[in-house]
Structures are given as C-alpha cells and as structure tokens.
Design brief:
78% of the residues lie in helices and 0% in strands. It is mostly helical.
C-alpha cells in the first residue's frame, strides 16, 4: 500500500510541475523536477527548464546568467545559445 501512495504522490507532484512549466514558471517547475529525480521524464524536463530559464535571461540581456543556465541544459539548442550569449558579451 505504501508503494501505491508514494507513486500517487509522485504523480500528483509531477502534474504540479507540468502545470508550472506550462504557465512559464520554469524555476518552480525545475525545483520539483529535480526533487522527483528519475521519475517519468523528469531528467529531460530539468534540462528543458534550464534551457527556458536561459532563454528568459537572454531576453533580459543577462548573458552570463543565460550561459550558466544553458550549460546545465542538454537540450539540443543549448550550444548555439551559449555561443549567441558569448557573441553578445564581446560586442
């Protein structure tokens, strides 16, 4: 019975993270995905959240901060974004 409750709790927590992500609350979603560890697609969503945080930092022209987020992301576009930020820093 404990296993069922734990799985149910994780599913509810995961749903909360998905909702936060969907509304653009990437930092809050990231915290939950990290806490859930290997549950479902959480490792991939951690990477996606870091990527989205990097994009937000770019929009605010926070180039160093963006680079830091992109470096934590395995998302396919991260290397190109890192280069874009570095290019902005050398202007």
């Amino acid at each position: 019975m404990l296993f069922v409750l734990t799985g149910c709790t994780k599913s509810m927590t995961y749903s909360k993270a998905r909702n936060l992500y969907a509304t653009g609350e990437y930092a809050e979603a990231l915290k939950i995905y990290e806490e859930l560890g290997d549950f479902a697609d959480c490792p991939e969503m951690v990477s996606v959240c870091y990527y989205e945080l990097g994009r937000e930092a770019m929009l605010e022209e926070q180039w160093q901060e963006a680079i830091g987020y992109f470096e934590k992301s395995d998302y396919h576009g991260a290397p190109a974004r890192i280069q874009e930020c570095k290019d902005q820093l050398t202007k």
